[in-house]
Amino acid sequence: MSAALQVTAFGLALLSTLFILLATCTDCWMINADDSLEVSHKCRGLWRECVTNMQDGVRTCDQYDSILADHPVKIVVTRTLMITADLLAGLALATLVLGLDCITFLKEDPCVKLKMCYGAGVILCVGSILGLIGSVWYAVDVYVERAMLVSHNIFLGVHYDFGWSCWLGMAGSTGCFVASVLLTCCLY
């Protein structure tokens, strides 16, 4: 039972970590589209902004100036939290691989392997919470930005939606959290 639970948690953690990595690297955290004309589709991300022409499908992307340049707080905080979540999830996966019962590393000491799985679960939990905070922070800021435009009557038919990168970050963080719960609570 313990080995099956470990392998299940490892599979979920691996898939969720890939989701978090993909969310960090991709650039569609916020979608800005014009309802009335449907001429272009703009995706804003952590690293650049891309505009797709809806008529011919041509996509152009503009890199942000520099990592060290002044950026909005939502971008800086989300970048920091997502990169930290990526690093912690990677560390947790490496620790978990070494702690799995099916791996021959430290086979003679099962207590140490169990502690490695438990430690991987704790690290994964911290990483997942940081990733979830980063994803939700960005989503809330998008919602507040749209609400401010509407409340100031600046709303010109443009709407803001959460992009697939934002949803991917939330799903990956939630999956890592579930895997950490499996590793920390269910193994004992």
From TrEMBL:
Q: Which organism is it from?
A: Dicaeum eximium
What molecular functions are annotated in GO for this chain? structural molecule activity
Q: Which domain of life is it from?
A: Eukaryota
Name the major location.
Answer: other
User: Which GO terms of the cellular component aspect does the record hold?
Assistant: bicellular tight junction; plasma membrane
Q: How does it sit in the membrane?
A: Multi-pass membrane protein
Where is the protein situated, by its record's location annotation?
Cell junction, Tight junction; Cell membrane
Q: What protein is this chain from?
A: Claudin
Signal sequence segment: 1-28
Keyword list (alphabetical) reads: Cell junction, Cell membrane, Membrane, Signal, Tight junction, Transmembrane, Transmembrane helix
Described by its record, this protein's role is as follows:
Claudins function as major constituents of the tight junction complexes that regulate the permeability of epithelia.
Q: Which residues cross the membrane?
A: 118-140, 162-187
UniProt family annotation: Belongs to the claudin family.
